[in-house]
């Protein structure tokens, strides 16, 4: 039915459509209808690399269709992408292609945006928002198709995009959602499910044992199960607990996972997999994550214990979804998970062509049962609100607009931003005034020049935008380069340039535990002469010390330490090492480009980058 509604709304005739429909309700086919009938190339925008790969493989199966994928270097225009019928890319990559003047962008006839509700996500949302605004300006007759989970205000997104709204609650497999308490699940359709939970001992966690019982019940009747918990450690611990039950023996799968490379985490995963249980989180190496996803889709794994990020990523449907934890630690306190995130998890329940129904169960107790029902089961997901006014996002996109030649004045930048979702939601806001403070920041960072009301990117600003780093990162790297030029040659080492790029907002944070703080402090003191920031000037000190830890890990990687050694030594996941290495390569390359803009020569940026991926 949602596909019929999309067709009637003109999706196969060049019409703009926003489809706000549940998971597994046919969004991909709606996208294909648009892309295959468009009068020219199509672009499919996704939020995550893993999802890009999955969609690329899906579209590549279409007969007679040439498909390209772009998720790599941010400083490349990748002109060959224009030769394909369909290009799959992340929103960041599309934004970067626009900044770098990729000619294929202006030849697009159709753009499909998957997970468009992520407009409301800090960081990623503003990039998607500006990308869509810019694409509409560059290609006035562009067909836009936006796909979303059900949210509270899809009509606002449709109105912004001048699109027809297709809104539906239809699913190919019916879903009932409920709350567990006292050995009974009360579902929203009025039915109950009795669950036998063995008596718990003094050291047992009641919520965990209830989760185990709910998983066992699903697997014993031929279903698969996703169990969501709040953290990586909890995902691994729950998988270990479920492995004790030997739910669905799969010794061959364990052997296959062993062949992907050994770390303690990888070995733990392979041992769990031998019993039909896997776990999935960002700390796993990418090869292990893909293997878990594929094994689950192939029904070789009965259970995945995961953090909530799995729900927003690749397609892994299950008969039953169990959400053990409804709160997570945000850095300051334990907070309720957003309703939309919980609905995304629940939406994974029900395998088309395999299950007569899907079930989603939130684990509670007698005290929380009613609250969980009201908060998540019967509640609508949150509205999608723009995050564009965040100062860091504004700095990034003001610089991009000026550096790309789209505007050269406050009013011109405001005019570009008038097409954003933020402007649509806040029509009374003076955009020129909003931009003025940001322009002052960028001028102070030496990234913009303001002369008699005319804005232009400096050489540093143009290079910062081209390298797709944030203005704050660009300013920090420039400061580091200038400090390096004043340092004695013998003090400039691999540690020096790694400290510069790790002490930027574009480098992922690395957890700094209480037990290692003193050791990292001593390391910083012993190498103080090699760092561009003096310890007494570091502000905030804790963030700088965390950057030093990341730099130390990367330095040891360049000197031959393998992932297993680093994971054991620094309490970091193997996937974290992979992501830090990838980020460092990008940032070191950007730093080398900024050296050229400064007419400075710091060969260590190039040398260390080469060592990261020999």
UniProtKB/TrEMBL annotation:
Catalytic activity annotation: Couples ATP hydrolysis with the unwinding of duplex DNA by translocating in the 3'-5' direction
Pfam families on file: DEAD, Helicase_C, Helicase_dom4_arc
Domain of life: Archaea
This protein's UniProt keywords: ATP-binding, DNA damage, DNA repair, DNA-binding, Helicase, Hydrolase, Isomerase, Nucleotide-binding
Enzyme Commission designation: 5.6.2.4
Helicase C-terminal domain sequence ranges: 206-402
GO biological-process terms attached to the record: DNA repair
Residue span(s) of domain Helicase ATP-binding: 8-169
The protein's name in its UniProt record: DNA 3'-5' helicase
Record organism: Haloferax marisrubri
